[in-house]
Amino acid sequence: MKLFSRYLTTLLACAALLSACGQKDIIEKNPTEDTSQFVMLAEAVPDAILEIRYYGTYNFVGTRIDGYLQPTALLTRQAADSLRAVSNDVMAQGFRLKIYDAYRPQKAVDHFVRWAADPADTLMKRFFYPNLDKSVLFEQEYIILKSGHTRGSTVDLTLFDMSTEKELDMGGTFDWFGHESHPDFGGNPVDGTYIPNDTITEQQFRNRMILRSAMLRHGFRPLDSEWWHFTLDNEPFPDTYFTFPVMDINR
Description:
This protein is of the alpha+beta class. It is built from 7 helices and 10 strands. The chain starts with a helix and ends in a 19-residue tail after the last strand.
């Protein structure tokens, strides 16, 4: 009963917040439909591999996410330029970037919020959050009302090893809801020191550090809860949450 009560309180609070300062605020205050400062990563970073999870069904929801009309990736020009430098960096080390998500429209975030508010929808639980009850997703900020992705300068990615022709083993999957996804799980990401544990091997931790170090060298900042998530440090639209769909924007 206590768990249900806490879950209901969280949902009511989220609904009130969304009503008071969510979509209405976004549409009224920001130039949300302007794509002129965005580029397609397939053109800006041609060596990157695209696996846009939210266009398909293999994601934590289990269906295509609202706002993803094509399996492409978009970023602001500034973020794409910096990501091209990262791509060149890791290519010299024998890797390619693999992109899971980049710009994410607000309607996609709203889709996540609706999904998280439905306790009966656990289709993909065993793949992405087997150790969590959906009632804690808002509280632990796995699902939030606004995402940095919607500002256009955030990217979710991993490394593809050209010698093995496989993704580099990071010791955990993209969008895994759990502390194992934290960059500091299994070590200190600041100095690269590995801490022995039963979940992440030293090589897996080192692989995460290869990606992290390359992203930091070229102007991205990490997130403390997801090893795959990075935002351009000097993002051009820090207060703008865009709503145009993910699709080909060739002009």
